[in-house]
Amino acid sequence: MNAKVLITGGTGLVGTRLTQLLQEKGYTVTHLSRSVSGNENVKTYQWNIEKKELDLEALIGVDYIIHLAGAGIADKRWTDQRKELILKSRTESTKLLQNSILKLDNHTIKAFISASAVGYYGIDTGDTWMTEEIPSGDGFAAEVTRQWEAAVDEINQLNLRVVKIRIGIVLSEKGGALVKIMQPIKFGVGSPLGRGRQYLSWIHLDDLCQLFIFALEQNDMQGVYNGVAPHPVTNQELTKKTADVLNRPLFLPNVPTFVLKLMLGEMSQVVTGGNRVSNKKIQEAGFEFKYTELRPALVDLLK
Question: Which domain holds residue 252?
Answer without folding.
Answer: 4-302
